[in-house]
Amino acid sequence: MDEYMGVIKLFAFNYAPQNWMPCNGQTLPIAQYQALFSLLGTMYGGNGQTDFALPKLDASSIHEGLQYCICYQGIYPSRQ
């Protein structure tokens, strides 16, 4: 089942599944992740010209081994 791009989920393991990235505040190049940038913009950081940032969400305070991940490749959400 495909997920919508930009969806954030909590996973009960310490790695990101295929098509997901950890929400650890990392900076990504816009050129490589144009569709995700079009959804997030610079809401979580980055300069908006060459890069943007993912949200930084820490699930380890809940329980060790949990992590939030964002879907970076999936269904682009429709605005209709």
TrEMBL record:
Which Pfam families does the record match to this protein? Answer: Collar
**Organism field:** Acidicapsa dinghuensis
Taxonomy, top ranks, is:
Bacteria, Pseudomonadati, Acidobacteriota, Terriglobia, Terriglobales
> This chain belongs to which protein, by name?
Phage tail protein
Record domain Phage tail collar: where: 6-58
The protein's matches in SUPFAM superfamilies, at most eight in alphabetical order, are given as: Receptor-binding domain of short tail fibre protein gp12
